[in-house]
Amino acid sequence: MDRMIDIAICQMQTSRDKEVNLRKAVQLIKTAAPKARLLVLPEIFNAPYQTDLLPAYAEPVPGPTTKMLSDLAREHRVVLVGGSIPEIAADGNIYNTSCVFAADGSMLGCHRKLHLFDIHIPDQIVFRESDVFTPGEDLPTFICEGMSFTVMICYDIRFPELARQAALNGSSLIIVPAAFNLTTGPAHWEILMRTRALDNQVFLAAASPARNPAASYQAWGHSLIVDPWGTILAEAGTGEEIIYARIDPAKLAKVRAELPLLQHRRPELYRNISRKEC
Fold this sequence. Notes:
CATH class: Alpha Beta
Radius of gyration: 18 Å
Number of domains: 1
Strand content: 25-35%
Structural class: alpha/beta
Number of helices: 7
CATH topology: Nitrilase/N-carbamoyl-D-aminoacid amidohydrolase
CATH superfamily: Carbon-nitrogen hydrolase
Order of helices and strands: EHEHHEEEEEEEEHEHEEEEHH
Shape: globular
CATH architecture: 4-Layer Sandwich
């Protein structure tokens, strides 16, 4: 990263009406674009986050939603991380996919969610993304307008190896479209996002849907932007909202110079940790 970048997260409420969801995304992007160069939407922003419904919303990439995002990026001259959508591939598999667009509307590439959210917490939540999605196989680094960033989708952020690899690959920013729920959100949302930023000395932007009381899956909300020291620069509440922050490369350089933990790594030792038994 070689210059300051203003970033905006559009925390939007989603419903079962795809056209309503898309119109809402358009309006939020139009509102945010004059104040930011990099815009981020939430996970599964064009559909309800409900596994039995998602196949009906799946579409190819490129397709109608990605064309809309491409047009918006070009119209407003912004870099746009299109949250994620259910993508149906040519082989019939459905992926949870985030597509990234340059300011000229070209698609830089896509990240397919690598780790599927299959959990069972008795009396609280049961959810199986693997009932509908196929996991991705790649973690791309996006380089655009002096920015180097990585996109991870929701459950991906729980795997620290991914965030460390992103930092080692040169990313200064990790972007996380995510939909934590009312069980995992209050317990883990803030601590996970701040820890991943702190441990890897990167900026991190986590984009949640707004909470929808009528939905079967209740998103936690609280989208946030964190700096490499672990400080929260901006945080949303639970409703529809746009938050803004400035990504400052001088802050990144300062943190990495004062606490050079990435330089102090000793990876040759980590594969051979000794074990003592009594």
